[in-house]
Amino acid sequence: MLLRRAAFRAGGRAPQRRGCVTGMPSREELLRLSTKDLKKLALKRQLQTSDCTEKAHIVDKILGEPAAKLETKTTTQTPFQTAAKMFSWREILVIAALLGYASYRMYTSSESSEVRDLRKLAAAGDSSACIALAKKLYAGEGTAAKPAEAFEIIRRAADAGDAWAQTEVGGMYCRGEGTVQNYPTGYKYFLLAAQQNNQNAMYNLAKLCEAGAGTDRDLKRAEKWRRKALEIRDFDSDSKAFA
């Protein structure tokens, strides 16, 4: 009906298209129709035209959509979903590994050769290399300061029983450096180091007992730790007090 109306307005008969099964008019024929007629035709084919501002857009939608198909809403996909459609799982794993390696190279490219060598030794299980690497990461020597990574390395050494590392971890917990501030946990590590006659740990235990931080306030216990620390001569100047 709409096609005949368009042909009538054009002053002729509607052309008969051979081999046309669906009876869909050509683009030129559709463009002769008014916007109102085009919207009616689109509605007949169950197409939404509310987002179309021009006749050409409506024509494109009529010609581009299959008959009797409702327009589906577009949904936003995450990058992972898009990648899953484009690549196989094996390819995604390879890409992820390459990206991880590139990130690691960028992370270590600004480090000195000494820090890189310490990393290799620490990865092989050398405890002295772990402590030396942690010191450099904490102080930012030969690399950018990375207190969080330094803390993790020192904590592993502390859990393995190293007194210096236990004192450092206790101080980092109390100062909140490289980790969340936690006085009770700091007190626990200081106590472990003090039991191995670490003088710095004893001084820090005295301060915590005096302030009542991480433990009950006890001046007598604080004085006891301070006197015990004075009896030890091997003071470690590399270790930091928590305050």
Structural features, described:
This protein is an all-alpha fold and about 240 residues long. Helices cover about 60% and strands about 0% of the residues. It is built from 13 helices and no strands. Helix 3 (about 35-45) runs parallel beside helix 4 (about 55-65) and helix 9 (about 145-160) packs across helix 10. The radius of gyration is 38 Å and the shape is elongated. The termini are far apart.
SS strand fraction: under 5%
Q: Over all CA atoms, what is the radius of gyration? A: 38 Å
What's the multimeric state? single chain
Counting helices, strands and paired strands, the structural category is mainly alpha
Low-confidence stretches: 6-22, 65-74
Query: Quick one: biggest sheet?
Result: none
Helix and strand element order: HHHHHHHHHHHHH
Q: Please tally the helical runs, counting DSSP H or I stretches of 4 or more residues.
A: 13
What's the overall average pLDDT, rounded?
A: 76
First-last Cα distance: 90 Å
Let me know the number of strands. 0
- Principal-axes geometry comes out as elongated
Range of helix content:
55-70%
Summarize the structure in short.
The chain has helices at 2-10, 27-32, 35-44, 55-64, 79-86, 89-108, 113-123, 127-139, 147-159, 163-175, 183-194, 199-211, 219-230. The protein is mainly alpha-helical and 243 residues long. The radius of gyration is 38 Å and the shape is elongated.
